[in-house]
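Example for tutorial group B:
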């Protein structure tokens, strides 16, 4: 085989192996937002004014999920999940510096605004904190046992350690839950590795709380090892 063909052959093999490694590292897709409708999810709204829920959670022409921020509620997975990797991308839809939302995971019982759960905090200046919601939610992180409040991300409050991107750009959330361990990165930066987490299974809520936001990716993958 000519030298150039050898080079092309090994380059092709390398690309195939790399693609295979990338595809398997995330495991089987357990659930994903399809950009067309809310299949696999349901909505819950604390709705005193009886506004249509579809005004709170909408799929846009771009194939994004829009969450209005009012009234309060959440988009929940139909399934109870454990041992998975969640990859999500979100951006704020307004310039309101008080924008505040979160991803609540392992929520039990279901269909309450503040179910016992763990929360990935998504708030201007505090994205990446991990909050313990409800009695009995616990985690060990940063060498300490936590049973209430929020576990602050490293460097919080230091402008040089800011991990959020500029408004109008997409933030990446990567959450891996394996048994009672939790690993969280925001925009590729590790912000938390926790153990002894409780609860360690449940539904996952995407919150409507304060301020408009959009998701363009929500994917749950099984773990491969």
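The residue assignment follows.
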């Amino acid at each position: 085989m000519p030298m150039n063909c050898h080079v092309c052959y090994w380059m092709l093999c390398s690309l195939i192996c790399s693609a295979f490694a990338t595809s398997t590292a995330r495991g089987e897709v357990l659930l994903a937002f399809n950009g067309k409708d809310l299949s696999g999810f349901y909505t819950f709204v604390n709705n005193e004014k009886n506004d249509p829920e579809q005004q709170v959670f909408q799929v846009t022409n771009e194939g994004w999920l829009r969450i209005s921020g009012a009234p309060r509620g959440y988009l929940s997975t139909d399934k109870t999940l454990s041992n998975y990797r969640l990859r999500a991308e979100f951006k704020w839809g307004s310039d309101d510096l008080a924008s505040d939302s979160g991803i609540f995971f392992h929520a039990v019982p279901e269909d309450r605004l503040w179910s016992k759960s763990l929360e990935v905090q998504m708030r201007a200046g505090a994205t990446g904190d991990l909050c313990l919601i409800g009695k009995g939610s616990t985690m060990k992180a940063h060498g300490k046992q936590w049973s209430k409040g929020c576990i602050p991300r490293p460097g919080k409050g230091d402008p040089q350690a800011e991990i959020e991107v500029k408004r109008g750009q997409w933030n990446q959330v990567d959450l891996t839950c394996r048994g009672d361990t939790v690993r969280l990165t925001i925009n590729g930066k590790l912000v938390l590795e926790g153990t002894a987490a409780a609860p360690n299974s449940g539904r996952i809520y995407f919150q409507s709380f304060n301020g408009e936001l959009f998701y363009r990716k929500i994917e749950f993958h099984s773990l491969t090892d």
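The mean pLDDT is 86. Compare this with the pattern of hydrophobic and polar residues in the output above.
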